[in-house]
Amino acid sequence: MKIDKLTVGNQKFNSRLIVGTGKYKNMPECAKAIKLSGANIVTVAVRRVNISDKNKPLLMDYIDPKKITYLPNTAGCFTSEDALRTLRLAREIGGWKLVKLEVLGDKKNLFPDMIETLKSTEVLTKEGFRVMVYCNDDPLMAKRLEDAGAAAIMPLAAPIGSGLGILNKTNISIIRKQTKLPVIIDAGLGQASDAVVAMELGCDGVLVNTAIAKAKKPYSMALAFKHAVIAGRKSYLSGRIIKNLAGKPSSPTEGIIYIFYNIFFYIFFF
């Protein structure tokens, strides 16, 4: 069977689930959860996760970058300058060009600052980065990011870490319909069924961190998200039935009495 792969830029991935590496109890737990999820891509907060100091535990010791694609991100950055500096550092450390851009606008709700985000996207694409952009669910801004050269649009479902699920399915659907880029839901998912909804809307993938890392059973939740993404994608590709306000019988409504009459007649008269 042909694998329905996620394509970002010139790279293809078997899994449509991206998993974050933060908020776990420890690195072994993180590594096992990611393995169970089947994810091919993991996000790495360059400012928070150790990827260069060999005197401390390295993420590479637990998650092999030769087997799993690292996606450096700018979590914790509140200005374009900080974000640019962070991703340039990531390129120097690991040669990474596929990156996730995240420029926050406030510390309480963690919504993206779209002015700073757009500015950063324009600079990074000119420098040769393939930028997957965390953004709000505004279709107009998503179009501007696409025009600026983004490699993927990553609209939030809800505030980061909130677990509220997709709050604006209409806008997500509009973004999916208008862009040729991959659309990957990022932030706010709380349970596996949220991933199903995202995939059934036609999104190309989902990014999950808190919902797995902070679940009562992270390993079970990692497996749940793995299967949810697959189920949602298959459902979307299968084509749902048309919604109707009135009911429609699922069994035949013609010829039933005639058939039973013939059976009755045959039993009692032959």
Molecular structure report:
The protein has one domain (6-241): TIM Barrel (Alpha-Beta Barrel). 39% of the residues lie in helices and 15% in strands. It is built from nine helices and ten strands. It has helices at 27-37, 80-94, 114-126, 139-147, 169-178, 192-200, 210-213, 218-238, 256-269; strands spanning 6-8, 11-13, 17-20, 41-45, 69-73, 98-101, 130-135, 152-155, 184-186, 205-208. The protein has a five-stranded parallel sheet. Helix 6 links the parallel strand 9 (184-186) and strand 10 (205-208). The longest helix has 21 residues, at 218-238.
Most strands sheet: 5 strands, parallel
Q: Tell me the CATH architecture.
A: Alpha-Beta Barrel
Cα distance spanning the termini:
53 Å
Strand content: 15-25%
Tell me the helix content. 25-40%
Q: Please name the CATH topology.
A: TIM Barrel
Tally of DSSP β-strands:
10
> In the CATH hierarchy, what is the superfamily?
Aldolase class I
Task: Output the helix-strand order.
Answer: EEEHEEHEHEHEHEHEHHH
Biggest sheet: strands side by side, in what order? Answer: 5-4-3-10-9
Mean pLDDT: 88
What is the count of DSSP helices, taking H or I runs of 4+ residues?
A: 9
Structural class per helix/strand content? alpha/beta
Overall geometric form: globular
- Summed up, the domain count is 1
